[in-house]
Amino acid sequence: MRIGLDLDEVLSRFVLGLVEYYNSTYKTSLKLEDFHSYKFWEVWGGTKEDTIKKVWNFQNTEYFKNLRPVEGSQQAVQLLSQNHELYVITSRPIEIYEETALWLQKNFPDKFARLEFTKNIWTKLGGDMKTKSELCKDLSIDAIIEDTLEYAVECASEGIEVLLLNYPWNQSNSLPKNITRFDSWDDILKYIG
Ligand SMILES: [Mg+2]
Fold first, then answer.
1. Cα(110) to centroid of ligand 1, in Å?
2. What's the CA gap between 138 and 93, in Å, rounded?
3. In angstroms, what is the span from residue 27 Cα to ligand 1's centroid?
4. Is this prediction's pTM over 0.90?
5. What letter does residue 148 receive in the DSSP assignment?
6. CA–centroid distance, residue 123 to ligand 1 (Å)
7. How far is the CA of 10 from the centre of ligand 1 (A)?
8. What is the chain's alpha carbon radius of gyration, rounded to the nearest angstrom?
9. pLDDT tens digits, residue range 62-108?
10. How many other CB atoms are found less than 10 A from the CB of residue 82?
């Protein structure tokens, strides 16, 4: 099977690093549970533009360089890579391609067939880039592992199976039938086999 993997919160603990950076920089005491939304301005206030600047600043720090892998993701990717083709499909800004590729190579050496970047809200470049579902279709992805509800629903509506990793920011009363929610990488492994 050809499997798409989102990067942040599926492989890397972006929000955890961001919270540590944010609390130390702005003297706040935010916790992961406070992130009921991945639109961070809805969590810590201020404007979207202000948040975009803050996230860019974060991406220039050691906190970002040293993001931890999601629990169980390294072992799971190791196993999955033996029988499946794995594609990383991220909505990170293309400007941080280099740092992203380095982090993946350090934490998941030689496990992925491709690293692809989609259209996103953060970037100054790439307004004409493809959306996540467009890229999944172009790459003939059979299933994608994702944490952002909007991308999950977008991909599901294009007929792609979505495995949604459970987080405070992706709660929903109901999900389309081709989205399944999982609590951990262990559970995902049991499902995909
Ligand atoms: Mg993500």
1. 21
2. 20
3. 26
4. yes
5. -
6. 16
7. 6
8. 16
9. 999 999 999 999 999 999 999 999 999 999 988 899 999 999 999 99
10. 6
